[in-house]
Amino acid sequence: MRSAMVDVPTPDGTADAYLTRPETGDELPGVLFLIDAIGLRDRTKAMADRVASWGYVVLAPNILYRHGRAPVLPTPDLADPDARAAFMTQLGPMLADFTKANMEADGRAYLDALQQHAAPGPLGLTGYCIGGRFAFRLAAAEPGRVAAAGCFHAGGVATGEPDSPHLSAAGIAAELYLGHADNDQNMTPEQIATIDAALDAAGVTHTTHRFTGAAHGYTMSDTAAYDEDAAEQHFAALEALLARTPPARTR
């Protein structure tokens, strides 16, 4: 892979980001990789590399950039419950940054940066955890640029708030794939039904899948939640989604 860290200007500063693409091929479609709340690290970079290996240029921003360059916080042993709890306590205040306005403004800046490196045309998204919520919001905010969005072990997509992401479903023109864990307190069956109803009412083409036995964070091999079978199914579903939508590479 040809990979490097790049800087992305945003309305609130500069986000460091991981840019990766195959060794060969310059005119490749783009995919924006929206990481989980744990941060930009080896696992998320390896996942971005895998997506790029299918024939894409992939940008994975440090979505916590307001608090510093990656790693914003030292990544603990996430298989240790006590270490994870302490990490989440530190991380908690940073999550207040992920307002609708910030996600839309940052997302537009990330898409602008990606388009500088990708072939002209629609882009794809894939998001994880809070990045899944981010992908949903950005698909609604930028329907002219986003043609496909994968949302995996996402949380906070259907809430009781007046700006809940699911309420923006009517703005989505992209095809969506929503890959939920069936043991995820951040995405209950009732929330899944609410999201599906909103997407159905808006006429959005989407697939909803619940991975049996999987927990929140099932794609992340550096955490105790990792589920290899569910993670591999997620890669297969994402590759198929990107291949059948306008970001598809020319094979």
Care to describe what's here?
- By secondary structure, this protein is an alpha/beta fold.
- It has one domain (2-243): Alpha/Beta hydrolase fold, catalytic domain (Rossmann fold, 3-Layer(aba) Sandwich), CATH 3.40.50.1820.
- The chain is 32% helix and 24% strand.
- It has six helices and eight strands.
- It has helices at residues 42-52, 81-91, 100-115, 130-141, 189-202, 228-243, and strands spanning 2-10, 13-21, 30-34, 57-61, 123-128, 146-152, 175-183, 206-215.
- It has an eight-stranded mixed β-sheet, sandwiched between helices.
- The protein is globular.
- The mean pLDDT is 95.
- InterPro entries: AB_hydrolase_fold, Dienelactn_hydro, Dienelactone_hydrolase-like.
- Keywords: Hydrolase.
- Residues 16-242 form the Dienelactone hydrolase domain.
- This is Dienelactone hydrolase family protein.
- Pfam families: DLH.
Task: Describe the protein's topology.
Blueprint: E1 2-10, E2 13-21, E3 30-34, H1 42-52, E4 57-61, H2 81-91, H3 100-115, E5 123-128, H4 130-141, E6 146-152, E7 175-183, H5 189-202, E8 206-215, H6 228-243
Parallel strand pairs: 3-4, 3-5, 5-6, 6-7, 7-8
Antiparallel strand pairs: 1-2, 2-4
- CATH homology superfamily name: Alpha/Beta hydrolase fold, catalytic domain
| CATH class placement | Alpha Beta
Neighbour order of strands in the largest sheet: 1-2-4-3-5-6-7-8
Number of discrete domains? 1
Helical fraction: 25-40%
Taking all residues together, what is the mean pLDDT?
95
Major beta sheet summary: 8 strands, mixed
CATH fold field value: Rossmann fold
What's the end-to-end separation, in Å? 18 Å
Strand tally, please? Answer: 8
Given the structure, what is the number of helices?
6
Strand content: 15-25%
| Unreliable spans | none
Element-by-element helix/strand order: EEEHEHHEHEEHEH
What is the CATH architecture annotation? Answer: 3-Layer(aba) Sandwich
Protein structure class: alpha/beta
> Based on CA inertia axes, which overall geometry fits?
globular
Computed Rg: 17 Å
